[in-house]
Amino acid sequence: MQRAVRRDYLFWLTATTSDMLSRAVWSLALPFVIFALTSSTATAGLVQSLGQIAYLCVMLLGGALVDRISRRTGMVVRGLTGMVLWIGFGVLVWTHLLNLWILIAIFLTAQLLDGLFGMADNAALRSIVHDDEQFVQVTGINQGREAAVRIGGGPIGGLLYALGAAVPFLVSGALLGLVIASAKAIRADLRPPVVAENRPEQRRGIVRSVARSVAQGISFMWSQRIMRTLAITSLFINAAFSIVISTAMLGLLGAGYTALQLAYLETVYGVVMMLTAFVAARLVSRLPTGRLLIGAQLFMMVVAVGAAFWHSYAMLFLWLSLYGLVTPLFATSLSGYTFARTPDHLQGRVRSVAALLELSATMVIPAVAGWMVNSGHNTPSYLLGAVLALVGIIVVCVNPGARRLGPTRMWREDATENSLST
Q: Domain Major facilitator superfamily (MFS) profile: where (predicted)?
């Protein structure tokens, strides 16, 4: 990797890590604030689901927007608005002026802005790292970074909440200031490339123009058989993972466990995930991706079944540790393939379409998990995760191209072959 590319990548990594750490801190504290206001795990889950729905409602628009503006501008706007909102949230908690409706209003606003501008950083990465092999390598590094944030973010969030309910949100806002500074320090041109087919959009109405941009992203993804199969698979993987995690966390919250105790679970998961992330890119580059996905989902299904019948606080350390073994493999293979095969000028749109498919089921998961936990149905909630993982396995198996998808070096050949056969 060239020195200039390495420098810009490090600034990009700083920006995205600050954003992730900010999110990890407020995400841990928010359910406790909701529970303190309402004494209901069902309400805590419902509010989180509303936030995901708000995010998904503007995701496609955000993807098109990111492909129309400089990704640097998107990162700065994302950092600035988030900083103002979360610091304001912290001040309201500190002054005891926060109620449930104000909390929902601020949370939904933050999620809407995240949906509009939150994909700018990931879209910018392709403008910094152009080589496919290097792109997969940095994707693996990013997974290690995500694990490191999980290791540090959970305990930091729990410790900050122990210091005061407002502190995690004030720190989250301050961290987003680093996003602004790091984005401005990147020297690479982060403007989306000008493509001839996009120029007529400048003379059209904004609504029609954005709608056409969104349609281009959907059309491109749907024309790639393997890519659309992997996106659908991601939907079930994320849903399975989300229901197990949400059930575990909301169950412990309702049982009276502290934020710091929940953070310990995040830490153990993050440590295992980080260790796996170091070898994830190497495994994806050497092992057939299709078989790797099937095996990892089968492992995930077994873990969900185990959690259904043994979900004490101590046993959850084991189950989340096992989840940490496979999470980097999913992210490296699924994201690596999708965005290595996507043209730079479509990065934002394809990312938004992929994310919409992946998260469309998970938007109701916190509400479902919260309701089931509140009703005392923890075991069926965990088993639902096993069923969703099984469906993900079936999706990969029924598509010959995805099932036989080879390692990284064969992705281009496999993609060409399947595009011709579509």
A: 1-404
**95-106 tens-digit pLDDT:** 999 999 999 999
What is the spatial distance between Cα 178 and Cα 173, in angstroms, rounded to a whole number? 10
Do the Cβ atoms of 352 and 64 come closer than 8 Å?
yes
- Please state, in angstroms and rounded to a whole number, the distance separating the CA atoms of residues 72 and 75: 5
Kindly provide the b/e burial profile for residues 183-219, where b requires at least 16 CB atoms within 10 angstroms of the residue's own CB.
beebebebebeeeeebeebeeeeeeebbeebbebbbe
CATH number of the structural domain spanning residue 393? 1.20.1250.20
The length of the chain in residues reads: 422
Q: 372: helix, coil or strand?
A: helix
Mean pLDDT computed over every residue of the chain: 82
Q: Which amino acid is at 208?
A: R
Regarding whether 265 and 336 lie in a shared domain, the answer is yes
Handedness of CA 100, 105, 109, 111 (dihedral sign): positive
For the record, the structure tokens of 385 come out as: 């995760």
> What is the pLDDT confidence band of residue 356, given thresholds at 50, 70 and 90?
confident
Among 264, 219, 259, 243, CA closest to 371: 243
Domain co-membership, 215 together with 150: no
Q: Which two tokens stand for residue 271?
A: 């440590």
In a domain, 392, yes or no: yes
| Residue range 230-242, pLDDT digits in tens | 888 888 888 888 8
Q: Which residue segment(s) compose the domain that 406 sits in?
A: 207-421
The pTM is what?
0.71
Which amino acid is residue 351, in one-letter code?
R
